[in-house]
Amino acid sequence: MKTCDCLIVGGGSAALACALSLYQQGIHDVVIVERDNTLGGVLNQCIHNGFGLQVFKAELTGPQYAQRYIDLLKRISITVYSQATVLSLDETKTAMILSKKEGYIKLQAKAVVMASGCRERSRGSISIPGDRCCGIMSAGTAQHYLNLDGYLPGKDVFILGSGDIGLIMARRMTLEGAAVHGVAEIMPYSNGLKRNIVQCLEDFNIPLYLSTTVIKTIGRNRLEKIVLAKVDENLKPIAGSEWEVECDCLLLSVGLIPELRLFDDLPIIQDPATKSARVNESYETNLPGFFVCGNALHVHDLVDFVSREAEQCGRFVARYLKNQLHEGAAVDCIALNNITALVPQCLRVENINQEVEFTFRVRRPMKNCELVIVKNGEELRRIRKRIVLPAEMETVRLSAKELKGLTSLSFEMRECE
């Protein structure tokens, strides 16, 4: 059996940043397990620019961003198993790994970090009825085909869902000569960042149909057309509103789910809002020594945010390995009116040296509103917001001084009076 101080599952931006942070904190016996043959994760297929403005103060493509971290890791000694998969993980932090080069590896770790990213929701998860023909795939799969394999997935394209990957692929497919006939979004507002709506749809005259969904796919061997319909306030198709669009490719951008299947057999508490593990201020689950960061914890807007969170997680993992974390009871952080996906979900105030950053999303768009934070039954802070959108992650930092004597903490988004 092999041993290590920290096992990191995944090889994308969160894993790379966390590994580097651990090394900087004096934790050198680190193992990264990545199922692909190269590090970088999904960044390798994101050839558009816009990455790295915060972390590296430069505008980079996805592969360039990943390479910056890979180059930094090459200067230090960290074990990387590529083309390898963690088959199982138990409560003792013992992992069974299948490596293409080394076969089966049994690894005993002192700490485990899940930096495994997220996966796309599929056609099956949203139950689109119709023919099971080819030409229907997730936007990320199409991105892989086009950017890494050089294969154009279709020539007449429609996109269901206004997530950022779908918006980016609308532009990408257009630039490659495909006709993108539109994007349908079941909600009455877009789920993508405003800049992507402008740069990927409006700049290319691609229509966005809100409160609209695909109710049927039609095709024999390959997709031939789809049937769309408007939806009511309950997101149910409205009879008589149907229309058809001829296309040979339907891309799905209908949400991302944190990839934590290795936790299925472990007694780790899940958070329904994030669909991931419930974590404290240290990014640690209820099972000591098991940490989660990056998109495996909650879906981020920017990769720069992923890296910074992973760096912070690495610092806490180092403190855990050095027995510097207080293991006492945690205080729950409660999400109230129009607040969802709050992270962290609980706090051990003794572990906060300076401040803690909270992230959350809103359930619906609001204008002229206030974030109200209540501590121990009394208002701690009130922050005015001109506009908040479900597509954009919100952040707020509370200092250790503000949290002193904490017994309860809640967050609420209210309409301004």
UniProtKB/TrEMBL annotation:
Keyword Oxidoreductase found: yes
* Ranges for domain FAD/NAD(P)-binding: 5-297
Name-wise, this protein is Thioredoxin reductase
Provide any one GO MF term from the record. Answer: oxidoreductase activity
What InterPro entries does this protein's entry cite?
A: FAD/NAD-bd_sf, FAD/NAD-binding_dom, Metab_Enz_Cyan_OpOx_G3PDH
* Any Pfam family matching the protein: Pyr_redox_2
List UniProt keywords, sorted A-Z.
Oxidoreductase
